[in-house]
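Severity: low
Component: inverse-folding endpoint
Summary: output formatting inconsistent between runs
Steps to reproduce: submit the following C-alpha cells with default settings.
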C-alpha cells in the first residue's frame, strides 16, 4: 500500500511537471525516482546485517495471566533498522491448528531487546517457532525476507491462588473468625441430600433400609458434600542462626497485625545479647562516619548520571530517524541548489544597473577573474575588456559610465541603461560558464548560483 501511494504521488508530480512545464517539479520527480533504487539497496543492506532470535528459550507462565517474552535483535551494520516484522507460529500439544502471529520491532546498532505480552488460554506446553523476518527500508517501500530457525518453549502452569496463613499465637487468642457451624447446610456430612434408586457401584452401608422395606426396592441415601469448609494450616517460624560466640541459636519471628515483625532469641542469654549489640554499634557508627565525606560526591555523580541517562533515553526514539533524514537531505540538496540558482537569476532580471554591477563583480570573484577589483579603479574598463574577450572596450567603458552616473549623478538610470547592464551581465555569465570545466563549473553554477 505504501509503495502504491508513493508511485501514485510520483505519477502526479510527473503529470503536473509536464502539464505546466515546471523544471522544479521535474527535478523533484527525478529526486523521488532516485529514491526507489536507494531504498531497495538499503533494504538489502539492513537485511544482511540483522539477526533476530528469542532472548529466552524457556518461559514459564500461568493460565489466564499475561506473561512477557522477548525478541533479541542484533544489528551488526552501521545503520539502524527502523522496522522489521517477525512471523511466528504457535503450536500447542493436542491441537492440530497452529496459530500465526506477527510482531513488529526496531533495532539500533548493536544488540537490542523488545518485549511482547501474551495470555495463555490453556495449561500445557506451547512452542513459539520463528519462521522468517521481513526487514523494511526507512520509507517502507521495499522489504527483504530472511529465514529463521529459532524456537521458544512456554510452559503454562495452572493459576496460583492465595492461602490464608495465621500464626499459632493469633489462632490461640480471640475467637475464630471462621467458626465451624455443623448445623449450616452443607457442613454436616450426616445430612441427607436426596434418596435415589440403588446402582451397582453404590455402597451397601448407604442403603435406606426402611424405605426399601416399604417399597420392596433398594433405595440409597445421598449425603451432602462439604463445599465451604476451611482448613487452618499453622507454620512453625522458628529458625536457627549461627552466632560467633554462641553457635547455632534459635530465633522466633512473630508477625503483628500492622505488618511488622518482632524477633526473640529464646535460647540466648539477655545480658550476652545486649553486650553483642553494644559492641557492634560503635563499629557501625565509625563505618558510617568514614563513608559520609564521599557520599555527597557519589550521590551527585549518580544524579548527574541518571539525568544523562534519561536524556539519552528521550533521544533514543529519534536516533533511527537520523539516517532517513540524512538521505532525504542528501537527495533534496540538488533541488534546493537548483531552486536557489533560478531565484537568483529571476532576481537579477529585475535589478537596476547598480545592483546588477554588484552582482557582476561577485560573479567575477567567484570565477577567479579580477578578484581584487572593486570597479572604481583607474583603467578598470580597459582591464575588464582585456580579461573578458566577450566584452569590447566600448561596452566596458559604457557599463562603467552608466554605473558611475547612477551612483554619483543627480538623476536615476534610464530603463535602457538598466537593460544594457543586464545584457552585459548575462552574456558574461554564459561565457564564463563555457570556459570553466568540471567541478569549477558546478561550483560556479550551483554553489555560486550563477
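Observed output (run 2 of 3):
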Amino acid at each position: 500500500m505504501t509503495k502504491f501511494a508513493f508511485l501514485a504521488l510520483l505519477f502526479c508530480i510527473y503529470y503536473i511537471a509536464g502539464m505546466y512545464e515546471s523544471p522544479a517539479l521535474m527535478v523533484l520527480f527525478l529526486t523521488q525516482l532516485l529514491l526507489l533504487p536507494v531504498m531497495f539497496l538499503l533494504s538489502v543492506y539492513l537485511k544482511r546485517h540483522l539477526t533476530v532470535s528469542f532472548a529466552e528459550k524457556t518461559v514459564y507462565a500461568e493460565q489466564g495471566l499475561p506473561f512477557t517474552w522477548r525478541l533479541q535483535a542484533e544489528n551488526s551494520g552501521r545503520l539502524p533498522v527502523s522496522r522489521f516484522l517477525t512471523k511466528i507460529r504457535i503450536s500447542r500439544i493436542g491441537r492440530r491448528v497452529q496459530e500465526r502471529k506477527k510482531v513488529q520491532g526496531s533495532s539500533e546498532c548493536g544488540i537490542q531487546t523488545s518485549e511482547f505480552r501474551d495470555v495463555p488460554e490453556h495449561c500445557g506446553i506451547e512452542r513459539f517457532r520463528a519462521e522468517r523476518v521481513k526487514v523494511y527500508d526507512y520509507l517502507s517501500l521495499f522489504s527483504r525476507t530472511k529465514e529463521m530457525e529459532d524456537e521458544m518453549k512456554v510452559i503454562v502452569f495452572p493459576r496460583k491462588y492465595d492461602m490464608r496463613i495465621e500464626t499459632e499465637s493469633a489462632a490461640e487468642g480471640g475467637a475464630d473468625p471462621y467458626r465451624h457451624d455443623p448445623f449450616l447446610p452443607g457442613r454436616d456430612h450426616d445430612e441427607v441430600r436426596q434418596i435415589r434408586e440403588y446402582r451397582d457401584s453404590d455402597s451397601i452401608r448407604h442403603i435406606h433400609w426402611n424405605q426399601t422395606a416399604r417399597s420392596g426396592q433398594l433405595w440409597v441415601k445421598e449425603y451432602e458434600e462439604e463445599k465451604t469448609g476451611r482448613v487452618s494450616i499453622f507454620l512453625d517460624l522458628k529458625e536457627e542462626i549461627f552466632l560467633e560466640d554462641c553457635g547455632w541459636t534459635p530465633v522466633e519471628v512473630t508477625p503483628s497485625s500492622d505488618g511488622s515483625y518482632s524477633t526473640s532469641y529464646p535460647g540466648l542469654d539477655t545480658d550476652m545479647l545486649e553486650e553483642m549489640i553494644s559492641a557492634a554499634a560503635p563499629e557501625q557508627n565509625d563505618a558510617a562516619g568514614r563513608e559520609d565525606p564521599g557520599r555527597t560526591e557519589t550521590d551527585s555523580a549518580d544524579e548527574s548520571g541518571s539525568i544523562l541517562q534519561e536524556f539519552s533515553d528521550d533521544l533514543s526514539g529519534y536516533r533511527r530517524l537520523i539516517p532517513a533524514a540524512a538521505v532525504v537531505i542528501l537527495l533534496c540538496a540538488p533541488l534546493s541548489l537548483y531552486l536557489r540558482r533560478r531565484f537568483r537569476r529571476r532576481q537579477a532580471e529585475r535589478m537596476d544597473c547598480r545592483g546588477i554591477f554588484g552582482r557582476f563583480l561577485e560573479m567575477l570573484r567567484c570565477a577567479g577573474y579580477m578578484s581584487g577589483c572593486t570597479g572604481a579603479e583607474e583603467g578598470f574598463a580597459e582591464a575588464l575588456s582585456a580579461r573578458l574577450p566577450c566584452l569590447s572596450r566600448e561596452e566596458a567603458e559604457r557599463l562603467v559610465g552608466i554605473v558611475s552616473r547612477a551612483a554619483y549623478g543627480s538623476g536615476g538610470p534610464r530603463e535602457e541603461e538598466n537593460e544594457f547592464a543586464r545584457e552585459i551581465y548575462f552574456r558574461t555569465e554564459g561565457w564564463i560558464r563555457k570556459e570553466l570545466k568540471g567541478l569549477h563549473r558546478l561550483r560556479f553554477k550551483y554553489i555560486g548560483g550563477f
